[in-house]
Design a protein that fits this description.
pyrimidine biosynthesis; magnesium ion binding; PRTase-like; 208 residues; 7 helices; globular; transferase; Or_phspho_trans_dom; 38% helix; alpha/beta; two-stranded antiparallel sheet; Rossmann fold
Length: 208
């Protein structure tokens, strides 16, 4: 974990700075220290991998959530009416971005997309405020591999008459997600790609 006496993390610097480079650097270090692991893993897509990124180690971390929400808020198109994401990985991201948007006097509601329709109550796929048809919604994701998870959210939102043309992820594993989104008419942005994560991880390991 980033040390509390690091100048870049002292309250009054990274917590309130408008310098996105400082925020991004601190978030990169958190991902490398808390979320990235080398080893033999099987991903949700069924693919085997020599590394794994547990995004929830950062998205549910107090400092991580603040860094993420401020960075993502700066990337949202000015006409964004809501942010949304598929359960479970995107839930803390959507929630923290919505909270910080209110603090920044730019309140943006959040929507959560269920993987399966609930069997009681309204039997809804989409949880959150009901917005007017054709509201512009940006889909958020923690880690993109093939891109199929976020596409489920996109499809449910589009089926509900929302306009979705942008997906933003924290990390792009560069294994086909971007190509899938582009083929579906979506713009795609990621805070980090896997090469940057690996490079910084090695640097931090050498400092130990």
């Amino acid at each position: 974990m980033i040390k509390k006496n690091d100048d870049s993390t002292k309250q009054g610097v990274w917590t309130i700075t408008s310098d996105m480079n400082i925020l991004r650097k601190n978030l990169l270090d958190l991902f490398c220290q808390l979320a990235y692991r080398d080893g033999d893993f099987v991903l949700s897509s069924g693919q085997k991998s020599s590394y794994y990124i547990n995004g929830k180690q950062v998205t549910l971390h107090a400092e991580g959530a603040l860094l993420i929400s401020r960075l993502l808020l700066s990337l949202l198109p000015i006409n964004t009416d809501a942010v949304a994401g598929l359960e479970l990985g995107a839930v803390p991201i959507v929630s923290s971005v919505s909270v910080i948007s209110a603090l920044e006097n730019r309140p943006i509601p959040g929507l959560i997309i269920r993987k399966e329709v609930k069997e009681h109550g309204t039997k809804a796929y989409i949880e959150g405020p009901t917005l007017p048809s054709w509201s512009r919604v940006v889909v958020l994701e923690d880690v993109v591999t093939t891109g199929k998870s976020a596409m489920r959210a996109v499809n449910h939102l589009r089926d509900s008459c929302y306009v979705v043309d942008t997906v933003i992820s924290l990390i792009d594993r560069k294994q086909g997600g971007k190509d899938l989104y582009q083929s579906k008419g979506l713009d795609f942005f990621a805070l980090f790609d896997i090469e940057e994560i690996k490079e910084r991880y090695k640097e931090l390991e050498n400092f130990k």
